Amino acid sequence: MATIRDVAKTAGVSIATVSRVFNGNTAVNEDTALQVWAAASALDYWPNGAARSLTTSRSNTLGVLLPDLFGDFFSEVIRGIDQLAKREKYQTLISGSHASVEDVLTATRAMRGRIDGLVMMAPDSITVESVTRIRRRLPVVLISPPFAVDGCSSVSIASFSGARAVVAHLIGLGHREIAMVAGPAGNVDAEERLRGYRRGLKEAGIQPRDELVVQGDFRESSGYAAAAALLDRRPRPTAVFAANDCMAIGLMSALGNAGLSVPHDVAVVGFDNITMAQYMRPPLTTVHVDAYALGQKAVRLMLDTLSDPESEKVTVQTIDVILKVRSSCGARPAVAANTLNVPESKQL
Amino acid sequence: MATIRDVAKTAGVSIATVSRVFNGNTAVNEDTALQVWAAASALDYWPNGAARSLTTSRSNTLGVLLPDLFGDFFSEVIRGIDQLAKREKYQTLISGSHASVEDVLTATRAMRGRIDGLVMMAPDSITVESVTRIRRRLPVVLISPPFAVDGCSSVSIASFSGARAVVAHLIGLGHREIAMVAGPAGNVDAEERLRGYRRGLKEAGIQPRDELVVQGDFRESSGYAAAAALLDRRPRPTAVFAANDCMAIGLMSALGNAGLSVPHDVAVVGFDNITMAQYMRPPLTTVHVDAYALGQKAVRLMLDTLSDPESEKVTVQTIDVILKVRSSCGARPAVAANTLNVPESKQL
DNA sequence: TGAATTTATGAAACCGTTTACATGGCGCTC
DNA sequence: GAGCGCCATGTAAACGGTTTCATAAATTCA
Predict the structure, then answer these.
(1) Strands A322-324 and A286-288, how do they pair?
(2) Which of A174, B172, B291, B315 has a beta carbon 3.0–4.6 Å from B153's, enabling a disulfide?
(3) pLDDT digits over B161-170, tens only?
């Protein structure tokens, strides 16, 4: 493997000059630079990243910590992170599925010296003190954090208001017995959606009842399983709000198998607006969350922090959500039978 | 930031001893080791990764190059990669969406000195020579490569045989006018599936016709769009094979909007068996591909190569696929109306 | 008891860069 | 033509570790 010394020797200059050429230092003669480029290209040389970050104490790499969840939503978040990072000449060191606090600390330790900042999306398995500890050595940006941490910018989803809007919409359609398939306990967004659901009911003068809430885990199968429990309730709920689309889809599948028609017998609403939602039969009413933007904003906040490390400025952002009314809630008739209408386009 | 010297000073030993402690060298006195641990913990010290890889010329990091595609399938592949890597104490440096050869080379250059090996899944934007060039400095494992490269292990999907099985199955059900929504040109798996489709037809004595093949791009919207083209054909196809599930789902949505019933009017089959497939109405017949295993095997091959760099051994693996018959192809009646049957569980 | 061996530790070289500082040559100015 | 400043380049010291080799102390053995 060619090193800077090999290039220097080949080009007949010192290693300092080679370094200057590769770092765009203008104080180097044009002809000399050309020679260096030629030598480098002949030797297929490129500066060694580890050595570089050792001297500069910058790695141009962002660490990303993910929770155990996967699927469409998360892959969009990652895409947002990766693309903006790439555009800004940063690399992405990813580490997924962290179950415990210990796990998270181990992962960040292993990243030590390799990253300039850390984007964390591990909501349920962190504590204020563990994040604070990481923050002491590294800039940290949190996605959907369950708490605020001194010195950490963060970006959250407007889960509460989205859920409230869902319930208000269902109530506007005449529903009174509205059930919910909740997300995993400990997950902030799951809890905010549950809170929004309850608030929405209260605002309509309806007392939320615990027996109308079924616990899920954000996966299709738990939505599917929830159906059985909900169909036992008397009076039977006329509408179900699932804390995310995956569960809503599992739920709809189970309802169909049980011979119930959506939305005629039961209205269903989800959350996230994953790609699949619009292709369901009936198309799923849901709350649109721009997952790509979520990832992008997190990186943007990180870059801000990195560009001015002294600044104590902390930004707390919230991604707005939009209720996306389709047919699964019964708000409007299913699309006329023989028209081929184009699906909603998705920005890339 | 505490360095090894700080720890050495605090513990009253030399830096060599500290290093030995952190590298599990047994030749260090137990009491001394304890002192070192205490000092390290007091200073919140952990070895700097960049410095470490500079001396050892190992980074314990795997580079991962992804294509521009995202969604459920790819996120499963990444999960497989990340989890096995993590278990084997490797980190994952990810870089997505590489459009051109130049792009790929730039990305790998930026990783220089930071990774021990490269897992590439960028099928359409690479050439033999560019990979060969990368291979000269780094172990490379390819996922679904369009060609073999000297010295590179690879793992592929049995796309050809899967597609052939789909067609055979449809023919067994009595279909003769079988159309296909193909994947993006240049993508190996797309092309293999197309080839398998044609072969399947030929084996049944049916001459494949180009007008029954519509070009797609693996996304839902292109499946949706394909419906319009296919419904114009006379005689109208009685079955459509989509090169992946996303397109099949888009297609089914469009067929529904056009007033056609699946599978009664048109049978539909997909490929990949993404999570969503079984929750569709009707549940989608498809070819199961274990994306998680695909990612895992790629990492396994990489670890093999890394553990014995001298060995010239190259392994070329293929992930087997299984035809997953559900209702969308009309092979068996839709699930009885009022039974709640549990969805197929998915291994995690 | 002294030589040989083992064990625990330290000193110093090295990994491949960047960068502060030194240096030498050249063109100006007075 | 001496003095000055500037420009292009080189020298050498970091950066934070690992590892080879040397060494002192402790143990073994005759």
Answers:
(1) antiparallel
(2) B315
(3) 999 999 999 9
